[in-house]
Amino acid sequence: MTGEAKPFRMAQAAGSDWRETLARCLAELPEGGGETLGFVYVGDAFAGDLAAIAETLREETGVPDWLGTVGLGICATGQEYFDAPAIAVMLCDLPSGSYRIVETGETPGRALDDAATAWSETKRPPFGVVHVDPRNPQAAELVDDLSAASGAFLVGGLASSRAGHPQIAGRMTEGAVSGVLFSDQVAVATGLSQGCAPIGDYHEITASERNVIESLDGRPALEVFMEDIGDLLSRDLARAAGYIHAALPTAGSDTGDYTVRNLVGIDRANGDIAIGALVESGDRVMFVRRDGQAARDDLRRMLQDLRRRCGGAPRGGLYFTCLARGPNLFGPDSEELGILREELGEVPLVGFFCNGEVSHDRVYGYTGVLALFL
Description:
Elements: E1 9-14, H1 18-28, E2 37-43, H2 50-61, E3 65-71, E4 73-76, E5 79-82, E6 86-92, E7 99-103, H3 114-123, E8 127-132, H4 139-150, E9 153-158, E10 167-169, E11 172-173, E12 177-182, E13 188-193, E14 196-198, E15 203-209, E16 212-216, E17 219-220, H5 221-229, H6 231-235, E18 244-249, E19 258-267, E20 272-275, E21 284-290, H7 292-310, E22 316-322, H8 335-344, E23 349-354, E24 357-360, E25 362-364, E26 368-373
Parallel strand pairs: 2-3, 8-9, 22-23
Antiparallel strand pairs: 1-6, 2-6, 3-10, 4-5, 4-23, 7-12, 8-12, 9-24, 10-11, 13-26, 14-21, 15-16, 15-21, 16-17, 16-20, 18-19, 18-21, 19-20, 22-26, 24-25
Helix pairs in contact: 1-2, 7-8
């Protein structure tokens, strides 16, 4: 890095009382000041305290604009706080006028208000960060609407919580999508890592109704599925639940990306398969399995590619990873975040474990999505 492009300030802490935990976070922040934008992520034990946490952060740091939400797990540099009360904060020193906080409505149709639309038309933001309420059944459409309206490549995630799902977007909000758009004054590199491995080739859907696949390649869907998963799982299809998933190719991807959707039902009598997505005849689908080693390999591939693209030490990062990853896929002792630190070094980083991850204009599953500020 050259000039005044210093690392962002970041701190993390865990504890049962939000006041004490936040005080430790503030005490651990490196010296600095003058930032205008901050990110804060809290464990769901603190969901009801997020408004008070945000107000305290404004008062104690002098940073006026805050973004954040709640997760069942929180990410920080080299550390996962999974199913534990914790707070992670990052303060960003960015050029004046280089970002705009936004909120969508709860239904698709108008992603940006007049002021945000005018800003986007002037700045043409190439990048944005979003937080999404998973209780909204039109969440995926709202993400797509916001990307289309702003022209931005979005990253982020769906909040995860056993309590409330509050978001901070300058003010407290919930129910839809909120976040921040960045102008081209803010340089960012992004990457996506899959958590599943293919177990066969793509098949063409030749008959379907809504989310039910009736035939693949002109044959009963269940017959094709059982051939792909093999004899052992075919004898006990209940074992496939939570392990085998459907994958739909990402249109326009030059890296073979796909969105993973759960299997939600099997009709043995008719030979049908139901998945967690609407499909049509002519669409393609393949079957994938959750695979820890494949996820590790793909995460390192993504990180090494990002490191080459960055060309130097990033100022900070945001990481959005699936609830099914972390200790549920990589193992204990913060192994997933440890891989990020091994590959990237001590980059200031915060994020959370999501109910779904956002990359570009889509909601993914079982993925890790990283944004690095340069």
